[in-house]
Design brief:
By secondary structure, this protein is mainly β. The chain contains four helices and 22 strands. It has helices at residues 104-109, 144-151, 187-190, 243-247, and strands at 19-22, 29-30, 40-41, 90-94, 100-102, 113-120, 134-143, 159-172, 175-186, 196-201, 204-205, 215-217, 230-236, 250-256, 262-268, 275-283, 289-296, 305-309, 315-316, 318-319, 330-336, 343-350. The strands form five sheets. The chain has a six-stranded antiparallel β-sheet, with no helix packed on it. Strands 5-4-13-8-9 form a five-stranded mixed β-sheet. Strands 6, 7, 10, 11 and 12 form a five-stranded antiparallel β-sheet that branches. The structure holds the ligand Nc1nc2c(c(=O)[nH]1)N[C@H]1C(S)=C(S)[C@@H](COP(=O)(O)O)O[C@H]1N2 and molybdenum atom.
Length: 351
């Protein structure tokens, strides 16, 4: 999980997904429902492989803005926690005036908010075998900020830690410590008005794998912060420096200093970086090649997507305006009219 960026860079380059295709040599696969009759998908020379039975995004079939549940990835570092709704409690404690203990029904009585947001593992795109750990879903639950305010956050609290029910023994300097999964946010980040404690995904109760009965949803931030099986929220006066804050999910980034030198800085993963991906290539009846893909970023919206074929110029792609929310991926497409038979490389970038 390393990224290099300098402060001077003008464009934020997305993950440059290069894909080679053969326009004539590979057998053309017949194509599914959403395309016009006669369209044929052109397979990539280096297809992304998805392990059978594993829920991962099938990029080459990308057409649903909301990711089908059976393609929605899972990452669970300490295995899957089985939490019964019966007897479940969310404890809110630490540096607050009024600690709370809420059942699932108590939480469902609170104001409900829906937000469609793209969830991506920060490791997504690290290597060819891990390019499909992303999905878009409609999450519903209760907003976090009013609940924290109601509890009365103490003046000396600096951080909010979110604990999951899943746990494992971690070795720290030679000794073993049982640890629950946890991530923390600064008070300011936790008080954003669009964070929710979600109990629904796409209109249904969260599945066990996605965090039943409750998970934190942090729109625009990488998945690591979206704590599943959430059962404790704790206000703290010192920073949590556990495995998932301070050892793993730490990026190394070169930042240009005033003297022009690069200083390497490590920081905990936070908002999502801008990325784009070439998903599908389809040959139309009239010979036009339509290239489609997705682009997404964390807190700032995607403004444009550009596509390059082989060593050609960057060409502006059309962004689908019918499907957008502030924290969701955007689908894009571009038509290529004068394609010659042979192998080609397609690269996309988002701005
Ligand atoms: N309790 C808990 N929450 C967790 C994790 C975990 O291991 N335990 N993994 C995180 C990571 S790294 C990611 S990418 C997302 C994945 O969410 P999903 O499994 O619902 O797709 O959950 C996050 N929340
Ligand atoms: Mo992740």
């Amino acid at each position: 999980m390393a990224s290099l960026a300098t402060r001077r860079s003008v464009l934020n380059r997305g993950m440059m997904a290069a894909a080679a295709l053969a326009l004539s040599r590979l057998p053309l696969r017949a194509f599914g429902a959403s395309e016009a009759e006669g369209d044929v998908a052109i397979p990539f020379l280096e297809p992304l492989t998805v392990e059978p039975g594993k829920a991962l995004l099938h990029w080459d079939e990308l057409k649903d803005w909301i990711t089908p549940m059976d393609q929605f990835y899972n990452v669970s570092h300490y295995g899957t926690a089985q939490v019964a709704a019966d007897g479940y409690k969310l404890e809110i404690g630490g540096l607050i005036d009024k600690p709370k203990s809420l059942s699932l029904d108590d939480i469902k009585q609170l104001p409900k908010k829906e937000i469609t947001a793209t969830l991506e593992c920060s490791g997504n795109g690290m290597n060819k075998g891990f390019c499909a750990a992303i999905g878009n879903a409609k999450w519903a639950g209760t907003p976090l900020a009013p609940l924290l305010k109601e509890c009365g956050v103490a003046a000396d609290a600096v951080e909010v830690a979110f604990w999951g029910a899943d746990k494992k023994s971690e070795k720290i300097r030679g000794a073993d410590y049982e640890q629950n999964f946890a991530r923390a946010l600064s008070i300011a980040d936790a008080m954003r008005d669009d964070l929710i404690l979600a109990y629904e995904m796409d209109g249904k109760p969260l599945s066990v794998g996605h965090g039943f009965p409750l998970r934190l949803v942090v729109p625009g931030w990488y998945g690591i912060t979206w704590v599943k099986w959430l059962n404790r929220i704790e206000l703290r006066d010192r920073r949590l420096m556990n495995r998932f804050m301070a050892r793993d999910y730490v990026t190394v980034r070169g930042e240009e200093q005033p003297d022009g030198k690069i200083a390497w800085k490590e920081s905990s993963v936070g908002p999502m970086n801008i990325k784009s991906f070439v998903a599908r290539v389809v040959k139309r009846k009239d010979g036009t090649i339509t290239i489609t893909g997705a682009a997404w970023s964390g807190l700032a919206p995607v403004k444009a997507v550009e596509v390059k074929i082989d060593d050609g110029d960057w060409l502006g792609a059309t962004i689908d305006e019918s499907h957008k929310e502030p924290y969701t991926w955007r689908f894009w497409s571009i038509d290529w009219k004068d394609a010659k038979a042979g192998e080609h490389t397609i690269t996309s970038r988002a701005i």
